[in-house]
Structure formats: structure tokens, C-alpha cells
Design goal:
Blueprint (H helix, E strand, L loop, with lengths): L3 E2 L10 H13 L9 H19 L8 E4 L2 H15 L6 E5 L4 H12 L3 E5 L9 H7 L4 E5 L13 H6 L7 E5 L11 H4 L3 E5 L10 E5 L14 H4 L7 H16 L1 H21 L5 E2 L10 E5 L5 H10 L2 E2 L5 E3 L2 E3 L2 H7 L9 E5 L6 H15 L8
Parallel strand pairs: 1-11, 3-4, 3-5, 5-6, 6-7
Antiparallel strand pairs: 2-8, 7-8, 9-10, 10-14, 12-13
Length: 383
């Protein structure tokens, strides 16, 4: 059975050109970038070039890029680093109820340390309304952290409107752009964000590396201590092959951004059209908001999410949900709870399909047919 991978929002296959770049760097450039000899200088040159290339993809200065181990560390550095560096100005933080757990759990930890966190609500499309942020801002607010594109339902937040509300405020504005980076065009000057998180493995790059954009002048307290790497902001020997691989993936995404965006929208439409053709009973969980082109979160009435995902897996389809299974109990997606309420049927019957490198219309036609087949199985399997 040839599997159909529709979980690119979880992680993506590594592009062949990225694998080649990784192999070359591991083979030819094993030096430590902090070493002053020739081998170290070659390593430093590769690192500097990768940083330059990554910075250019968001119109930033290379010195504003902090290489991290991925999106989670980038989010944590942004949140804890800002909170600790600005604690003397206040202890109030604003985020949303639909953030990735790398943000939510960081904020919850800060609450245990005495900080106060306001969790903004969203509408039934997953959007934060600027009026909610405006009402939540206080004189002692030091950080606003709102994601760019949601990893579960794909909703894009109106960052240009939200950041304007903070321009004349002391608060630092951070956005988790892990899902948006490489999928939509990002210019940090236009967005007016102070901090922005990314991850390589979401854009066909290697796992284990991401970056945090830190606008010049934005204060952060380092979370790791050791050497003076990353301009004393993040200690640890740099993973140069990973940086090279990340930069290669980012440049490939940038070169095809507009074309890829349209292609993903076309694939998503084809998938939905095929489901409709096959009389599959479904509805979109996000219909009327700007969305990431590769994420499609669907509600299938009268299905059990755990059973459905198992059946899809057996049929050769890789998909996911925002639900967490712990000790046999399924906890509903916090994103869908925020959108629809705690008793909504969408919580137990929604699946996220996400598209990317290698996804074809033929695969999506086959996937739709298999989904229809699974849903047509005896009702007893859903009980």
C-alpha cells in the first residue's frame, strides 16, 4: 500500500536539494564556527551565509536572527526572554486561547511565577478581533504574543491591525509564524512585529533548527548560558549543517512562494470538490477567514475522531486532529473549543488534512474515495 501523506502541518518531507546541502555541509564543513583556524573560518563563512539568507526571507538584518533548535525554543526564548527582561516594567502578558502549546504552556508557567496572563477569545472562524486586544492592553502589559497562522485550522490573524495597537505602547509584540513562514510572504517591517518564530521542518527543511527574529533594540534575557554564540543571546555550538539546510529550504520556498500558494489552493479545492462529488457529509471549520493555503480542517458529523483516524491510518492516509489522547481519553482540541464551545460536535469529529511537497491531485482523489469508504462502514464502528 502506498501511503498518502496529508499531515504536512505536523512535519514535512525534506526536500532533495536540502538533503544534498546537508550532506555537503556535514562532509566538507565539520568545523566549529568559534575556532579561529582555517577549518573554523570555513564553518563561520557557511554559518554567516545561511544567516544572511534566512534574514533576507523576512526582510530582516542578519544580526536580528537568533538560530534556535526549532519553533518551540524560539517561542520560549521570545516569551520567557521578554518577560524576564521587562519584569521591572510590569508583569502582564496578553496571548490568545488558540496558540500552539509552545506558547500556551510557556505563558502558564509564567503565571506560576507571578505574571498575569490574559487569554483573548476568538470568533467561530478562529480570529482575534482587534477590539479585544485594545480592551486588554494595560499600562503594565509587557508582552503580546499572537500567532500568525493557526496550526490546526489555518486561520490567519490580522497582524497588521493588531500590531498597530501596540506601536505606541511599551509592550513587545511576538508572533509564532511557524506555520506561516514559507507559505505566505513575510516582511517584518510591514508587519511591525518585534519578535517572530520559525521552524525549518515545516518547510521541507531539517528537524532541530529554527530561528527567532529579534528586532534591533528589543530586549531579551538569554535562557541558556555558556559560550558567546548568537551574539550572547543563545549559548551552544552552532549546528552549521542544519543552518545550511534551513537556508536552502527557505530559499526554495521563497523562489516559488506565489506559484506554490496558488498550487496549494488548487489542491485544496480539488480535495473538497472530490469529497462533495462522493456525497461525503462534511463541512469546513473555517469558511470566512483568511487562511493558510495548506491546512484544511473538516468536520465529519456523527463520527468519532479517534476511530476515524485509526480507520484512515489503516486505509493508508496520514492525517491528524488537534485532540490529544492520554490514558485512553481524548481531550478535545483547545482551538476548536475556543471557536465553538465546550459542547460543540466539532470537537469530537474534526480532522486536519494538510498538504505540501509531493501532494498530487491523484492522491487527493484517492484519499477522498478512501474517506468515503471509511465513512460508509457500518454505524457500529462509530460507537
Amino acid at each position: 500500500m502506498t501511503r498518502i501523506y496529508l499531515d504536512h502541518a505536523a512535519t514535512s518531507p525534506v526536500h532533495p536539494e536540502v538533503i544534498a546541502a546537508l550532506t555537503s555541509s556535514y562532509t566538507e564543513c565539520f568545523g566549529n564556527a568559534s575556532s579561529i583556524h582555517e577549518t573554523g573560518r570555513r564553518a563561520r563563512k557557511q554559518l554567516d551565509m545561511a544567516r544572511d539568507q534566512l534574514a533576507a526571507t523576512i526582510q530582516a538584518h542578519p544580526n536580528e536572527i537568533i538560530l534556535t533548535s526549532g519553533g518551540t525554543e524560539a517561542d520560549n526564548l521570545a516569551i520567557f526572554g521578554t518577560a524576564y527582561a521587562n519584569k521591572h516594567l510590569g508583569q502582564h502578558i496578553i496571548t490568545t486561547s488558540v496558540e500552539h502549546h509552545a506558547v500556551l504552556h510557556a505563558c502558564q508557567q509564567l503565571e506560576k511565577e507571578g505574571f498575569e496572563v490574559t487569554y483573548l477569545p476568538v470568533d467561530n472562524q478562529g480570529r482575534v478581533h482587534p477590539t479585544s486586544l485594545q480592551a486588554a492592553l494595560r499600562d503594565d502589559t509587557i508582552l503580546v504574543t499572537i500567532m500568525y497562522g493557526n496550526n490546526e485550522v489555518g486561520t490567519l490573524q490580522p497582524l497588521d491591525e493588531l500590531t498597530k495597537l501596540v506601536q505606541d505602547h511599551q509592550a513587545v509584540f511576538h508572533t509564532d509564524a511557524v506555520q506561516a513562514y514559507g507559505t505566505v510572504e513575510i516582511d517584518v517591517t510591514d508587519l511591525q512585529v518585534d519578535l517572530l518564530s520559525t521552524s525549518a521542518h515545516k518547510i521541507n527543511g531539517p528537524k532541530g533548527i529554527g530561528f527567532l527574529y529579534q528586532r534591533t533594540g528589543t530586549k531579551l534575557r538569554p535562557l541558556s548560558h555558556g559560550g558567546q554564540q548568537e551574539r550572547k543571546r543563545r549559548a551552544g555550538t552552532e549546528a552549521i549543517p542544519l543552518a545550511v539546510g534551513f537556508a536552502t529550504a527557505a530559499l526554495l520556498k521563497e523562489a516559488t512562494l506565489s506559484k506554490s500558494h496558488l498550487a496549494l489552493l488548487s489542491l485544496k479545492k480539488h480535495f473538497l470538490d472530490e469529497l462533495t462529488r462522493l456525497d461525503v457529509n462534511y463541512s469546513l471549520n473555517v469558511k470566512d477567514a483568511d487562511q493558510l493555503p495548506h491546512i484544511c480542517n473538516l468536520f465529519f458529523p456523527d463520527t468519532d475522531i479517534e476511530t476515524f483516524l485509526i480507520q484512515l491510518d489503516l486505509a493508508g492516509i496520514d492525517a491528524s486532529s488537534g485532540s490529544a489522547c492520554t490514558a485512553g481519553a481524548v481531550d478535545p482540541s483547545h482551538v476548536l473549543v475556543a471557536m465553538f464551545g465546550e459542547e460543540a460536535p466539532q470537537l469530537r469529529s474534526s480532522v486536519r488534512f494538510s498538504l505540501g511537497l509531493g501532494t498530487t491531485k491523484e492522491q487527493l482523489t484517492e484519499a477522498a474515495e478512501k474517506i468515503a469508504g471509511v465513512l460508509n462502514k457500518p454505524a457500529s464502528i462509530w460507537k
